[in-house]
Amino acid sequence: MITPYTMENQEFSNKAHNAAKRYIYPRIFKNDGISIRDTILGTGEAETILDGQLAIDRIIQIPCKLNGTIKITVQERFRKKNHARFRDIAITEWNNASGIEGELYKLHSNLFVYGYYDDYRDTFLELIVVDVPMLLMRIATETIEYTRTYFEDKRQSAINVKFDDLRTSKCLMYQASNIGRNCN
Predict the structure, then answer these.
(1) Which of 11, 29, 119, 166 could anchor a disulfide with 171, C-beta 3.0 to 4.6 Å?
(2) pLDDT in tens, 122-174
């Protein structure tokens, strides 16, 4: 059994992504001219590879004073507000039901945008941006604290890294709280 797809979860993800486009990406990239290309699984052949095999959800294109455009790849994960108390990033490690490796082993994005989103208030309660290559290096060299969890109902394992540990190991590029509609 793979994690079931539901319209409710898809709608939540879409709302959170659209909020990130409005409130988060302009803050991170400090450039009004950015464009965002979605690379969501099932929308094309390239997207099947980007999202399905490389865990890349978005490509941020940033115009610069040089001759071209810089492209930054992003994996997004937005969780509902009731998970905010955990203050950790969860990355699937393995899916025992399918025998397929999880996000941890296929993650090729530059950044991981991870946050707790209140869709009723259109607000990110807390959001972080993780330097993926640095995080993967820290995990591989065992220089960051993490725990492993197993979700019996999904037959998946995951690793969890606390926000504070991401900060102290220099994997965080950005962190903010209460960003969104009616927030300063």
Answers:
(1) 166
(2) 999 999 999 999 999 999 999 999 999 988 887 889 999 999 999 999 999 99
Strand partners, 89: 161
| pTM beyond 0.85 | yes
pLDDT of residue 1: 32
Query: What is the distance between the alpha carbons of residues 93 and 147, in angstroms, rounded to a whole number?
Result: 11
Which of 69, 77, 84 has the alpha carbon at shortest distance from 125? 84
130 phi/psi in degrees, rounded to 5 = -105, 135
DSSP secondary structure string, the chain?
-PPPP-HHHHHHHHHHHHHIIIIIHHHHH--TT-EEEE--TTS-HHHHHHHHHH---EEEEEE-SSSSEEEEEEEEEEEEGGGGGG-EEEEEEEETTTTEE-HHHH---SEEEEEEEETTTTEEEEEEEEEHHHHHHHHHTT-S--EEEEETTTTEEEEEEEHHHHHHTT-EEEEEEEEETT--
Q: Which residues pair with 73 in a beta bridge?
A: 59
